[in-house]
């Protein structure tokens, strides 16, 4: 654990309505170009909401989205937001070999850097799919030149979940170097860690509960990292076929997301993860010749 400022972060996982993970109905990568996109309108809408409150976000772009819609990356940069990587093809880390993961993460990083004109420091895996079973992810992120990661979900999660007792930002020391980890924010309720701050949790819990939990985390001296997907402000999006429970998790309260988000932006101070790295005086290593040449 390292000391971190009492700030909130709004992180946006920039993906489309058809990128919901691990369903028989989820389209393959080869189909993505032929599907109607909603990410352009929804992402710009999120940027407009952030602008209304002078908030800056960390935008974890799928590399595929960045390449198909480079104007979204450039618009985010123009408005002062941070560009980070969500990988290239939205594949669960534990379904990849270490080399496949590296190629996916590196491809996304360098594509986004080429579009944005800025170095990409941060990474978040699809579905927070990092646990004690695939800690080699840290090595491959360092190899690709990342400075921080935000893939650890320190509670139960359907695609990951690593309850390693680390709930504050911390340094991960590996043979390749040192990576800064920003785990997803959780708070203990009846002795168990729970998330209230993103995705289905943000849509399901009442605003008063989310605000109370946010205040509690900040009082403990930890930053609160919220995460949201552009599709979560889009009640009219197409729906993938899935079971009843998964449908509830994916689509519950879509019409309430924007109002909750606006209240949170009005109540709390928001900065980017890049800004937290700088405030914590964490040294940002320069890319090696090998990393720069990839």
Describe the fold and architecture:
This protein has 294 residues and is α/β, with parallel strands linked by helices. The chain has 11 helices and 10 strands. The protein starts with 7 loop residues before the first strand and ends with a helix.
Features of this protein?
294 residues, alpha/beta, 4-stranded parallel β-sheet, disordered C terminus, single chain
The main pleated sheet reads as: 4 strands, parallel
In which range does the helix fraction lie?
25-40%
Summed over residues and divided by their number, the pLDDT gives a mean of 91
Assess the beta-strand content as a share of residues. Answer: 5-15%
The poorly predicted ranges are 288-294
| Quaternary status | single chain
Give a quick precis of the structure.
The chain is of the alpha/beta class and 294 residues long.
Task: Show the helix and strand layout.
Elements: E1 8-14, H1 39-52, E2 58-61, H2 63-68, H3 70-78, E3 82-85, H4 98-116, E4 122-123, H5 136-144, E5 148-149, E6 170-174, E7 177-181, E8 187-189, E9 192-194, H6 199-204, H7 207-219, E10 224-228, H8 244-251, H9 257-267, H10 273-279, H11 289-293
Parallel strand pairs: 1-2, 1-10, 2-3, 4-5, 5-7
Antiparallel strand pairs: 6-7, 8-9
């Amino acid at each position: 654990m390292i000391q971190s400022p009492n700030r909130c972060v709004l992180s946006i996982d920039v993906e489309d309505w058809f990128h919901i993970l691990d369903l028989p109905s989820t389209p393959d990568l080869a189909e993505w170009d032929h599907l109607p996109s909603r990410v352009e309108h929804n992402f710009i809408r999120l940027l407009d909401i952030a602008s209304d409150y002078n908030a800056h976000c960390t935008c974890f772009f799928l590399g595929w989205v960045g390449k198909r819609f480079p104007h979204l990356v450039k618009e985010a940069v123009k408005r002062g937001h941070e560009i980070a990587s969500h990988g290239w093809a939205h594949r669960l880390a534990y379904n990849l070999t270490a080399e496949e993961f590296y190629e996916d993460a590196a491809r996304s990083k360098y594509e986004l850097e080429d579009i944005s004109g800025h170095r990409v420091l941060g990474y978040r895996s699809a579905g927070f799919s990092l646990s004690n079973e695939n800690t080699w992810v840290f090595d491959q992120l360092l190899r690709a030149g990342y400075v921080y990661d935000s893939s650890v979900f320190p509670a139960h999660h359907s695609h990951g979940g690593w309850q390693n007792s680390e709930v504050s930002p911390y340094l991960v020391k590996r043979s390749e170097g040192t990576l800064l980890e920003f785990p997803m924010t959780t708070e203990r309720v009846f002795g168990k860690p729970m998330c209230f701050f993103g995705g289905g949790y943000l849509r399901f819990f009442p605003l008063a509960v989310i605000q109370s939990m946010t205040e509690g985390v900040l009082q403990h001296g930890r930053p609160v990292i919220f995460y949201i997907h552009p599709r979560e402000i889009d009640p009219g999006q197409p729906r993938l076929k899935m079971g009843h429970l998964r449908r509830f998790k994916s689509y519950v309260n879509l019409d309430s997301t924007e109002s909750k988000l606006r209240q949170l932006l009005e109540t709390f101070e928001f900065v980017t993860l890049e800004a937290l790295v700088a405030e914590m005086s964490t040294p940002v290593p320069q890319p090696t010749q090998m990393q720069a040449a990839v």
